[in-house]
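Example is below:
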Amino acid sequence: MSVSKTSITEKTSARSVLTTKNIAKIAILGAIATILMLFEFPLPFAPSFYKFDFSEIAVLLGAFAMGPMAGVLIEALKIVLNLLFNGTITMGVGELANFLIGVSLCVPAAIIYKRHKTKKTAIIGMIVGTVCMAIAGAVLNYLVLIPAYVTLANFPLDAILQMGAAVNPAINSLGTLIIFSVVPFNLLKGAVISVITGVLYKHVSPLLHR
């Protein structure tokens, strides 16, 4: 029986991430991300249920230092810890959204940076990650997340749209909610997270690689 090179590479990559030291770093960064997630606030152009937080900074730092798989694990740990300590008021939909959209920022950025670790590729990676985050946020909210919340929470779509119209009268449909709130929200969040991560990484990198 032959084993594909891709399978061997994936197993080797998993082993290289899941060392004792990296597991400890992932746990610490996951805890930091959970704490950062507590300090959330709405933005003036989006309905109040879209909350901005800085937890992706810890995730992106870990992804840059240990690779994209570590970023996914930190993101997942953050969500699990948040559910354990704070529960959910969105039937799990908000937490799923946070995980998927966070991963869509950190994984592309880390993949690009991993190939050639320079300041230039880090910037390119974060720009690409921010664009991916905006696209993923738009598609997932339109096709999956908002419809799932409407169904699971029995919360009328019209009520969600009214919340959007309260901050922007141009919002009168799910499509306009995505265009005027979700896309700018994720573009802004990705840009802010990227800038802060870019400033911090040089200073914390020695600790993360120790």
In short: The chain has a mean pLDDT of 91. Residues 86 and 115 are 37 Å apart (CA to CA). The helical segments are 5-17, 20-38, 56-66, 68-86, 93-115, 119-152, 157-167, 174-208. Strands lie at 41-42, 51-52.
